[in-house]
Inverse folding.
């Protein structure tokens, strides 16, 4: 039964090889959006953070907190950890921007952003390839069996699109038309 | 040498299986963004199309043409076909929106949008799994050997993010805060 062992090893090897390539492609998409977002947010002054992206729309500070708190929750959605800033969800996730609400300072929000994205980087870099292809916590086993494409990687791609969506808004505060 | 044949078959089977799963994940990301974009654009009246997303920024009609013409070019970037609307690139890709420029009518742009995305749908649905993992036309063989994650699928993920980026702007014309 030598070939059975060989098949087993080859199967394991090629599967891992392919998986690693996919993971890299998906994480490239996520990392690109996070880098771009950090570059744009970090180019803004504290007074820019209080500007609205368009008349009567969200302020930069709101979108910054929105992304940080949503990504903090991503650990839970992926089933990889516990969120640290769930207390900020009413302010930044469950309600639109409100000029009257009391917000953390920009300095505090920057510390939260860096912590959240540092935590995710570590989690992502250390996750075993096969773990990426398991279901996320927002779906049942039965649904996952029907559609195995709804796995952790698909959640990360979805979140990358969500960053891009808000990034298109955040750049509007820049004077030039992008 | 029975096991050699078995290994070959298993290797082929599992590689294809994994590839198909990842292609589905990536195309889900693209299709979701295109469906959302179509839903938002189609909710706008002809007069909405002439509104700017924010003061002194692009109009809806420009972003609609921008996405349609960029996606028409995607066929060339992927090395899967010839663009049909390269003549519109100066208007919608190489220059920002200009109120003075003469544009195709909204009706014409809608026909172009539908044709471009219909063409892509057919190309994408008929592409053999292994073809998705080949390099795109915007890079050399040498660069691809160094980084095989820069393949056709990664281009499609990149374009999905680009749609999301502009979609975040296009929704700003809606009265509610999104």
């Amino acid at each position: 039964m030598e070939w059975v062992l060989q098949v087993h090893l080859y199967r394991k090897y090629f599967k891992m090889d392919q998986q690693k390539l996919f993971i890299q492609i998906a994480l490239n998409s996520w990392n690109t959006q996070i880098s771009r977002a950090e570059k744009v947010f970090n180019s803004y002054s504290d007074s820019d953070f209080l500007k609205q992206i368009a008349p009567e729309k969200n302020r930069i500070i709101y979108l910054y907190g929105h992304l940080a708190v949503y990504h903090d929750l991503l650990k839970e959605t992926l089933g990889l950890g516990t969120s640290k800033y769930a207390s900020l969800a009413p302010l930044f996730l469950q309600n639109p921007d409100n000029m009257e609400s009391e917000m953390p300072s920009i300095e505090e929000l920057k510390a939260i952003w860096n912590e959240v994205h540092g935590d995710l980087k570590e989690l992502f870099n250390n996750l075993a390839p096969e773990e990426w292809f398991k279901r996320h916590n927002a779906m049942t086993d039965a649904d996952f069996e029907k559609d195995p494409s709804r796995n952790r990687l698909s959640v990360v791609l979805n979140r990358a699109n969500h960053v891009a969506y808000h990034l298109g808004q955040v750049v509007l505060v820049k004077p030039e038309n992008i």
